[in-house]
Amino acid sequence: MKNPILILNVSGRAILFLFLFLLSLAACSPWSSETNKALKMAGDNRAELEKVLNYYHKENPNPQKLKAAEFLISNMVYKYSLFGPGVDSLNMSYEYVYGVYRGQRNHVFLSDSIARKRNAHTDAEFDLKRVTSSFLINQIELAFETYNRHEWSRLYPFEVFCEYILPYKIGHSDTVCWRSYAYNKYGELLDYSAFIGADSHFEAEMHCLIESLKVKVEGASENYTRRISNDDLLMFNMDFDVRTDGSQLFKLYYVNGHTTAANIRIMIDSIFIGDFVFPSTGSWQRVENEVPPVEFTAQLDSGTHTLKMISLDKDILLDYVTIPDYIYMKFPESVISEGKYFFSNSFGRLTIAADSLINENSINIAPNPSKEWPIRIVAKDDNLYQLLFEASGVTKAIDAFPFGESEWLITYNDHGFQNQQWAFIPMENGGYQIRNKETGRVLAFSETDSILIQLPAEMMRDDYIWHIEKVAGSGDKTIDISVRAAQKISEITNRFHWSGSYAGFGPVSPIKILDYTYGSCVEQTAFQTMVLRSMGVACATDFVFNYPERDAGHSWSVIFDLDGNTVQNNCHNPVGAGTWVDAFAKGKVYRETYSINRNSLFVINNGEERIPDQFRNPYFKDVTAEYCDVVDVEVDIHYDVQDGNKFGYLMVFNNRGWVVTTWGERTRNNKVKFKDLEPRGMYLPAFFVNGRFEAFHEPFYFDSLGMINHIQTSKDEVQDMILRRKFPNRLVDESYHQLIVGGQFQGANIPDFSDANTIGIITQDMTEPIFHTIDNEPSSTFKYLRYIGPDGGHCNINAIVFYDGNGEPIEGEIIGTDGSLNNSGRTKHMAFDGDVLTYFDAPEPSGGWVGLELSEAKSVSKIRFATRNDGNMVEVGDEYELFYWFNREWASMGRRIADSNELVYESVPMGSLYWLRNHTKGWEERIFTLDTNNHQTWW
Q1: Is the pLDDT of residue 865 over 80?
Q2: What CATH number should be reported for the domain holding residue 912?
Q3: Overall average pLDDT of the 906-919 stretch
Q4: Are residues 375 and 452 in the same domain?
Q5: What is the dihedral of CA 123, 125, 129, 134, to 10 degrees?
Q6: Short-list 867, 873, 900, 864, CA closest to 775
Q7: Which of 230, 176, 236 is nearest to 205 (CA)?
Q8: Coil, strand or helix: which one is 916?
Q9: Total Cβ atoms within 10 A of residue 596
Q10: Is the pLDDT of residue 12 over 50?
Q11: Which residues contact 209 (CB under 8 A, 6 or more apart)?
Q12: 243 — phi, psi (to 5°)?
C-alpha cells in the first residue's frame, strides 16, 4: 500500500506545476483572460473564433477591430440561438399574419391553427459553439463601416460603440446579417425627404378607360377606386413625369377586403420592380385610414415613365398613388442648430413688418433693414423645423396655406402641423432652399407686394436661396447630431405597427421583422435597434418585468447622445419626449446589454441557489435611477421560511397574481436589502423556495412622506363593503366623462320630437364610469324616446335602457342621427347593444341624438345608462369573488352573483389588501385598499 501522504505531496506538486504551466500559457496568450475563458468554452468551435482574433492580430492588424473582436467573443459566453423546424414555422406564421387586417394580427397569431404550426421541435445552441469566423469578421467590418460612415457615430466613445452599435445579436434569433440588410433597405431614407406637391397625387380611377373597373368606396379619395386584377388585358398603366434623375419614392393607397394579403407585381417601363404584399384592409366597403400605403423606391431618369401593376392572385382596389418630390437632403449638412437667425438672400436681409405678427395675416417685408427681425428656428422630427417670430410675449409661426395652389403665407399660432414645418435643403454653392413639408413649395417673396410667399419648386431660382446667420448670444443649446440622426430615423421606425399586448412572438428572424414591421414591444424594439445601429446611432432596449400598478411589463428603445445621456426613443413619439412611460410607476427599470453584467444576480449567485428564470441572465443592468427617484429599502424577515436563502425578491401584482420585479441580498441582521427601488406601488417581499415564491413579510407601500407602510389585516375589526368596480378607469380619459353632463332624455309622440317632454337630465354626479339610474314618475306615455347629447359631446352615451311602468326593459326600432365621427363605426345602434365597451359617437359635436320608436306608447319609470368606460364596473348577472390578504396568502369572502350594479360584502376584515375577481368574464382586475369612507385606492 502506497503512502497516502506521499501521494498527496506528489499530487500537490503536480497541481502546482500545472497551475504554473497554464499561467505561463496565459502570459504568452495575446488575448485577455475573459477571451481565453470564452475560447476554452467554445469547444470544437474554438478554431473559428481564433481565426477572427488572428485575422485582426496578424493577417490584417488593426488594434481597434481586435479589441472589438475580443469584446464580442469574451461576452458571448452565455448567448445562444434558437433554430430548427419550430422557428421555421414561427417565421412562416409571422410572414402570413402580416397579410391579415392590422386589427386582427394579434388574434390570428394566437389562434390554435397558427399555434399548432409553431409547436414543432426547436433546437438551441450557444453562439460560442455556432458562429463562424466569416460571419463574425463580416459583422465587425460592417459595424466599422457604419462607425466611419456617419459623423455622429465617430463621435461616440469606443466603449459606447462596442456596447450599443457593434453587437451582432438580436434576442435569441439565429445569427443572420441583419445590419447590411437594414441599411440597404432603409439607409437611403436618412438622406432623403419626401415633399407632396399638387402634382404628386394620381387618382387611380382617372387612369382607367373601362368603367366596370371603377369602384365606388366610402372614404376613397374622390370617392372612386380602380380594380387591379390578374388579367393581363386589364393591367393598370399610369404615366407620370420625374423632374430630376435619382431615387423616386412611390406610395400606393389601396383597399383589400380579403381576409389575407394580395400579391401585386409592380413594373416601371416594363422593368420588374418587385412583387409586393398588400395586407388586408379589413373591408371592401370603406377605406381604412389606419392602414399605411405600400411604399417602394426606384432609380429613375428624368422624363416620362409608366407605372404598371397586376395582381398575382387576388384583386385589390387601388385608390390613388403619390409620387412626391424625393429630395436629397445631404444629412447632416441639412441639420440646423436651434436658435435665432437673421435670414438673407441676394436682395439683402429679411426684415419683417411688426404688423405681420399682430394681425396673423400676410408676412410683410419692411423696407428698413435697420429694424431686422430675427426668426427662431425650432427643430422637429424628420429633420424639419418651425420658423417662429417672437415679440412682447407673443409667438407666431410661418404658416403655409395648405389648400389648392395658394402662394399665401401667414403668421399663425404655433400648432406644429406639417404646414408649419420646413426643410433646409443645402444648395451646391451655399445657402438653403427652404421648403414646406405639407405643400412642397419653397419659401420665396414677392417684390411687387413686398410679402413672403410660397412657390412651386419648379419656380425655384437663385433669388430664393436663403442664407442664415445665427444671432450672437441667442443662448440656444448646440445641436447633438446623434439625436438629430435619431429624429430623422424615427420617420422609418414609426412605420412599425404595434399589433397587440402579446409579449413577444418568439425568435422571429431579424430579416422578417425588417420586412414586415409589426408585433409586440419586443419586435418593435428589435426593429428600432437594427435600423438605428445600422445607421450608426447608439441605442439599447430598456424594460420593466412588470409595472407595479399594471398588468404587464414593457420594453422601449433608448438612444445615447454624445455626452452619454439616455434619451427616450419610443416609437410614434418625438425622440426625447416624455411619454406615458414616465407617468407609470415602474418599480424597476433595466437595460439590455451585450456585455456580461458582473453585478447581476446570475453572476453573484454563481449557481449556488435556485433563482427565478428572469434573473438567470447576465445581459441586463439596473437603470432605475435614470428614470425616477430611488431609495434603498431593508425589509425584516417577518415569517419563518426555509433557512439558507441568500437572496430575497420583491413582487408586484399583474392582475392575476404576484410576479417578481427585483432582487435583494440578505443582511446579517435578518433583513433583505433592496437597492434603487422606486417608492411607488405595492410590493410583496418573498423568498424563492423550491421553485415557488414564499412571502416573508406583508405587502408594503410608500406613503406621501416616503415611509414604508405594511398591510396590517385586522380580523377583529371589520367593515361592510359596497363595491362598484374591479379595476380603475384607465381606458377612458376623465374628460370624456364630462361629455354627457347636461344631456337629456326625452319622450314624445311626434317623430320630430316637437312635443318632447324631458324625463331625465344627466348631472355632474353621474359621470363616474359605472351604471347610473334616473327615476321618473310614469305619468305620461310616449311613442318615441331619445337621448340628446349636450353641445360638444358628440352624443357619447352607452348602454341605454328605458324601463316601462312595470319595470320591464322597453324595446323598439333604433332611431337617431346617422353615421359616426370619422366613420369609426360607432353608430347609434351601439347605444342600445348592451355592450358596455361600445358607445355612440355622433359625426358632429352638437345636435346628435339616439332613441327608440316604440310599437305602442308606453310610460317610462326609470332610465339606466353609462358614460364611456372600460367595462370594469359591476354588472348584473356576473359572478364575483372578493379576496383579502391574510397570513401570506389570499383569503376568500365568498362568491356572489351580482343582482344590481353594486356588490355588498359584510364583515370584511379591515386594513387589508383586497382583490375583486369576476369569474364570468374579463381579465382586468387590480388590488386595492379601502378607507373608512368606502373609497378604493388602486394598486
Answers
A1: yes
A2: 2.60.40
A3: 96
A4: yes
A5: 70
A6: 864
A7: 236
A8: strand
A9: 18
A10: no
A11: none
A12: -80, -35
Residues 838 and 791 in one domain: yes
Sequence-ordered alpha helix ranges (H) in 756-897: none
Q: With CA atoms as reference, report the closest residue to 913 among 641, 666, 755, 701.
A: 701
**pLDDT classification of 205: cutoffs 50, 70, 90:** very high
Q: Which domain holds residue 3?
A: 1-30
Q: Are strands 518-519 and 497-498 parallel, antiparallel or unpaired?
A: parallel
Kind plus residue range of the DSSP H or E element containing 2 = none
Distance of CA 605 to the CA centre of its chain: 35
What are the beta bridge partners of residue 853? 784, 813
Cα 931 from Cα 734, distance rounded (Å) = 23
Instruction: Indicate whether 934 pLDDT > 90.
Output: no
**Cell matching residue 310:** 397586376
**Cell numbers for 928:** 386595492
* 354 and 399 co-located in one domain: yes
pLDDT range class, residue 347, cuts 50, 70, 90: confident
Unique residue bearing C-alpha cell 478554431:
47
Of 323, 307, 309, nearest to 247 (Cα)?
323
Q: Enumerate long-range contacts of 568-575, CB under 8 Å, 24 or more apart.
A: 569/486, 569/490, 569/528, 569/532, 569/539, 571/490, 571/493, 571/494, 571/496, 571/498, 571/524, 571/528, 572/494, 574/380, 574/381, 574/487, 574/490, 575/381, 575/483, 575/486, 575/487, 575/490
What single-letter amino acid sits at 470?
K
Other beta carbons less than 10 A from residue 714's beta carbon: 12
Contact 261, 279 (CB under 8 A): yes
pLDDT tens, residue by residue, 565-600: 999 998 888 888 866 667 789 999 999 999 999 999
Query: Are 568 and 580 spatial neighbours (Cβ–Cβ below 8 Å)?
Result: no
How long a stretch of residues is the chain?
939
* Peptide bond before residue 332 is cis, with ω within 30 degrees of 0: yes
Same domain, 738 and 854: yes
Give the count of beta carbons closer than 10 Å to the beta carbon of residue 37.
14
Residue 90 lies in a domain: no
pLDDT computed for residue 331 by the predictor: 87
Amino acid at residue number 390: E
Which neighbouring-strand residues pair with 648?
Answer: 664
- Cα separation, 49 vs 64, in Å, equals 17
Domain count of the fold of the chain: 6
Residue 706 has pLDDT above 60, yes or no: yes
Separation between Cα atoms, residue 669 and residue 658, nearest integer Å:
26
Scanning 746-851, the segments in alpha helix (DSSP H) are none
CATH code, domain carrying 313: 2.60.120.260
Q: Which residues lie closer than 8 Å to 111 by C-beta, 6 or more apart?
A: none
Question: Running DSSP on this structure, what letter comes out for residue 600?
Answer: S
Is cis: bond before 769, omega within 30 of 0? Answer: no
Residue 686 lies in a domain: yes
Mean pLDDT for the chain overall: 91
Q: Which of 150, 97, 456 is nearest to 332 (CA)?
A: 150
Do 624 and 694 share a domain, yes or no? Answer: yes
Average pLDDT rounded to a whole number, residues 218-225: 95
Q: What CA–CA distance (Å, rounded) separates 73 from 53?
A: 9
Residue 206 DSSP one-character state:
G
Q: How far from 348 is each of 390, 647, 815, CA to CA, in Å? A: 21, 72, 66
User: Per the domain annotation, does 75 fall within a domain?
Assistant: no
Q: Answer whether 249's CB lies under 8 Å from 295's CB.
A: yes
Domain of residue 780, CATH code:
2.60.120
Same domain, 420 and 344: yes
CA triplet 540, 141, 481: central angle to 5 degrees? 45
Give domain status of residue 902, yes or no.
yes
At residue 367, the pLDDT reads: 65
Grid cell digits, residue 816: 337617431
Do residue 755 and residue 860 come from a single domain? Answer: yes
CB atoms within 10 A of CB 937: 12
Question: What is the 8-class DSSP label of residue 766?
Answer: G
Domain end, chosen from 424, 453, 470, is at 470
Side chain identity at 623, as an amino acid letter? V
Residues 774 and 832 in one domain: yes
